[in-house]
TrEMBL record:
This is VWFA domain-containing protein. Collagen VI acts as a cell-binding protein. InterPro entries: Collagen-VI/PIF, VWF_A, vWFA_dom_sf. Belongs to the type VI collagen family. GO terms for cellular component: collagen trimer. GO terms for molecular function: extracellular matrix structural constituent conferring tensile strength.
Length: 400
């Protein structure tokens, strides 16, 4: 893989999704009508000879972070040979050379094990050199646990040892420290631009404005949560609702609507409020919400949410809206109907996010309800952390 962002990189499918989305969240792709300023991001997936799949830097369909995330998620693992030199040449000719803006800096992050098909031309390992492109090569062992090939990495990085990094696992690509380091590499001298918002009284820019999003919070009301944490989780849902740009009416083709379901054992599932954009109704429903203090069966909660919130006769999900489920749970739950629930989520094209609080969590369950997307799982030490700006802002950027 090559991830290019008037910049570039190479990786495995899940790591590609995680890294590209993480970097994308920190520097949102600019609408791609060849703007004079802003960051643009492209991706190349490559495999055997002549097999390339690209997200172009100037793709006019990518005009927001959400559309970029969707394009990345649509990449499928090709699973073939490895023609890295040809891919580097392709990336320069097809993504950089033709669509490069004047006076822009171009970065390439190439993530690979360094090996390639011997029939491919070694000279093209330097295809990005001598073109005013800053190249970082990251070497990671392959799925067979073979160590990366260092000599080729140095060639890719234009013989600059400081531009070569070594890793042992692909999961390291989505570690917070690595993302921070890459941000420093890709944007060493950031310019802080204060937007001119004469009519905006808040300090943040409105979120979830360019597409319809229906967000269903599923709160684990089990006895492990505790009354105090229940109130903190309830406050978190209200603060998220206040931060989002809510729909102006129930059939608004843009903006967000929010619902909350508190799940417990196989029987007690409680829709605290259905999908709505009415802040007053949300506030009143949350004020009246009572802690279930029950067992936990997340599968039953998911099925109930789909049947009674998503498909509900009153205020069901909008037809063309992105359907997001946000789980507030540690994953310690009964497994009854969990497989059925996960299958139903996939059928409904649910986009999951999991907020797992505390040190005692069931990672297998969290992986299942996140539909295998590790980057969609937020781990926090306690419910107080949900109110911290560092987490809260990151969460809002993620769901929007």
């Amino acid at each position: 893989f090559l991830l290019c962002r008037e910049t570039e990189a190479c990786l495995d499918p899940e790591a590609l999704r995680g890294l590209s989305e993480s970097l994308g969240r920190r520097s949102v792709p600019h609408p791609h009508a060849r703007p004079a300023a802003g960051t643009r991001v492209g991706v190349v997936q490559y495999s055997h000879e002549g097999t390339f799949e690209a997200i172009q830097l100037d793709d006019d369909r990518i005009d927001s972070l959400s559309s970029f995330k969707e394009a990345v998620k649509n990449l499928e693992w090709i699973a073939g040979g490895t023609w890295t030199p040809s891919a580097l040449k392709f990336a320069y000719n097809q993504l950089i050379k033709e669509s490069r803006r004047q006076k822009t800096r171009v970065f390439a992050v190439v993530i690979t094990d360094g090996r390639h098909d011997p029939r491919d031309d070694d000279l093209n390992l330097r295809a990005l050199c001598n073109h005013d492109v800053t190249v970082t090569a990251i070497g990671i062992g392959d799925m067979f646990h073979e160590k990366h090939e260092s000599e080729n990495l140095y060639s890719i990085a234009c013989d600059k040892p400081q531009q070569v990094r070594n890793m042992t696992r692909f999961s390291d690509l989505v570690a917070e420290k690595f993302i921070d380091d890459m941000e420093d590499v890709l944007c060493p001298d950031p310019q802080i631009v204060c937007p001119d918002l004469p009519c905006q009284t808040e300090l943040y820019v409105a979120q979830c404005t360019q597409r319809p999003v229906d967000i269903v919070f599923l709160l684990d009301g089990s006895e492990r949560l505790g009354e105090q944490n229940f109130h903190k989780a309830r406050r978190f849902v209200e603060e998220v609702s206040r931060r989002l740009t809510l729909a102006r009416r129930e059939d608004d083709p843009l903006h967000a609507r929010v619902a909350l379901l508190q799940f417990g054992g196989p029987g007690p599932q409680r829709v605290e409020f259905p999908l709505t954009s009415n802040l007053t109704a949300i506030h009143q429903a949350l004020e009246g919400a009572r802690y279930l203090n029950s067992f936990s069966h997340v599968g039953a909660g998911i099925v109930h949410a789909i049947n009674h919130v998503v498909r509900g006769a009153r205020a069901g999900a909008r037809r063309h809206a992105e359907l997001a489920f946000v789980f507030l749970t540690d994953g310690v739950t009964g497994n009854d109907s969990l497989e059925e629930a996960v299958h139903s989520m996939r059928k409904q094209n649910v986009v999951p996010t999991v907020v797992a609080v505390g040190g005692d969590v069931d990672t297998d369950v969290l992986s299942k309800i996140s539909l295998g997307d590790a980057t969609a799982i937020f781990r926090e030490k306690d419910y107080d952390s949900l109110a911290q700006p560092g987490f809260f802002d990151r969460f809002i950027r993620w769901i929007c």
